[in-house]
């Protein structure tokens, strides 16, 4: 399969880690290309950041289809531009939120997500409402670590463990979803630490979930419904600076 991973930020801080981790998500004969934005935010941590990222995300999405890619992952838990991208192209497009939640819902009754900053929590409430899964989401928490500081894995794992354990004990959470695709490489360690604390609780890596979901759609010969994601009406569009 030929897959495009769009890291929807201008910073390249995650690129090498994404390329390393992606090897665990794909099959040996898959071709994967990782690309950043040319313009937009250095990270996505609020609605403003997301809005600034979407125009170039859509540019990259359109270009990927023209270059023959079979599926696209927008590598962000907030699913920035995902629905617009599905209107724009005829290949599967996923972000981190929908796939990880769909998998989590099949693994346990009560779901909790742990994200980066409090600014992200209102965005997650909106995404939960759009999916219609409010009754299953029991906790939305944050570790209070900015996206660009997630490279300190020890600090991240300790904070995730604390918030996850608290959500399990106080909010009866049965499945944990990592609320940022920048939290790469920590899901298994967190799951093992929770097991050592007496709780076998699945932990979902959203980037892993997104890649495998796109691959599943491709393998099944499926793309998103044109009754939901209708092709945009033809009209002129004026871009800033043009």
From TrEMBL:
Entry-linked Pfam families: Asp_Glu_race
GO function term, MF aspect, one: amino-acid racemase activity
SUPFAM superfamilies: Aspartate/glutamate racemase
Matches recorded under Gene3D superfamilies: 3.40.50.12500
Coiled coil: none
InterPro entries linked: Asp/Glu/hydantoin_racemase, Asp/Glu_race, Hydantoin_racemase-like, Iso_Racemase_Enz_sf
Similarity field: Belongs to the HyuE racemase family.
UniProt-recorded name of the protein: Hydantoin racemase
Natural source organism: Thermoanaerobacter siderophilus SR4
